[in-house]
């Protein structure tokens, strides 16, 4: 198995030490890969060597609270502005100037925010599984039904017990992924399960359900959205509707018969899409 951390560095972002896997030629065009819950940079182990071999400089950070990065205790430190600042710090500290951004799950949510806040530092976006927040809201009742766990995760200690009791029974059953043993190893460390859930608690508090829909400016850089037909948590509608919020060029791709963890379960198909997409936006 490819060693994601075989070439890694640390970056300090506002007092939080982030571990960043760094592969490929230093002068290659940069690609920033952002994982989600409950992953780490290891999510991208099938993409990193392919992109690096194609000549890209590939950076895959462990988000705060995950993998080998620090895990702040304060819930507020997982708010989206901190997550975006972490990624911009990685781009800046590595001297890249600009990067293509690829995100999955919460990493896709961060990628969408980078599309607004990253300015010239972001060249293109690839958002996997999770669509634009406006598209998510437009997806209606079916998406809200699939998102039942968002409310459960707000309850401190309750959510932690639900996921971890009985040898992590519900994490195993809910995700249905072969990656679960790796997640359990990471989340079993002191404070790490709570840190991972702080993403939800900081960014999706219950009151957000009742909030009026925000008006979003258009994303003015090219975006590719990738969704899989076997995703148990996210509907196709929330991804397709995301194109309405993009003015810089929108491409939608569907991967058949694959669950939520596309980078792990359909690596060849995803790699082909990434190489084609990145190659057309050099």
How would you describe this structure in keywords?
282 residues, eight-stranded mixed sheet, 8 strands, 17% strand
Over the alpha carbons, how many angstroms does the gyration radius reach? 17 Å
> Count the helices. How many?
12
Q: Assign an overall shape.
A: globular
Indicate the low-confidence ranges by residue numbers. none
Task: State the helical fraction.
Answer: 25-40%
The first-to-last residue Cα distance is 30 Å
Beta-strand content: 15-25%
Strand order of the largest sheet: 1-2-4-3-5-6-7-8
Summing up helix and strand content along with how strands pair, one would put the structural category as alpha/beta
Number of strands: 8
Q: Sheet with the most strands?
A: 8 strands, mixed
Provide the residue-averaged pLDDT. Answer: 95
Tell me the series of helices and strands, N- to C-terminal: EEEHEHEHEHHHHHHEHEHH
């Amino acid at each position: 198995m490819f060693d994601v951390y075989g070439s890694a560095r640390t970056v300090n972002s506002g007092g939080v030490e982030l571990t960043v896997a760094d592969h490929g030629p230093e002068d290659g065009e940069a690609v920033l890969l952002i994982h989600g819950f409950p992953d780490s940079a290891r999510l991208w182990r099938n993409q990193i060597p392919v992109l690096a071999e194609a000549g890209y400089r590939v950076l895959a950070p462990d988000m705060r609270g995950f993998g080998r990065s620090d895990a702040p205790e304060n819930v507020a430190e997982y708010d989206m502005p901190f997550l975006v600042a972490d990624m911009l710090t990685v781009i800046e500290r590595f001297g890249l100037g600009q990067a293509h951004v690829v995100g999955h799950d919460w990493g896709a949510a961060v990628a969408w925010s980078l599309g607004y806040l990253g300015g010239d530092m972001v060249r293109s976006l690839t958002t996997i599984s999770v669509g634009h927040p406006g598209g998510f809201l437009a997806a209606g009742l079916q998406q809200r039904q699939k998102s039942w766990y968002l409310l459960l995760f707000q309850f401190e200690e309750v959510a932690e017990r639900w996921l971890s009791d009985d040898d992590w029974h519900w994490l195993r059953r809910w995700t249905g992924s072969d990656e679960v043993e790796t997640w359990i190893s990471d989340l079993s460390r002191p404070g790490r399960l709570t840190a991972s859930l702080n993403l939800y608690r900081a960014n999706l508090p219950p009151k957000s359900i009742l909030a009026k829909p925000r008006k979003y400016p258009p994303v003015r850089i090219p975006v590719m959205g990738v969704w899989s037909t076997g995703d148990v948590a996210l509907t196709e509608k929330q991804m397709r509707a995301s194109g309405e919020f993009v003015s810089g060029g929108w491409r939608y791709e569907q991967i058949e018969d694959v669950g939520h963890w596309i980078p792990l379960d359909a690596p060849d198909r995803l790699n082909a899409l990434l190489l084609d997409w990145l190659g057309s936006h050099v």
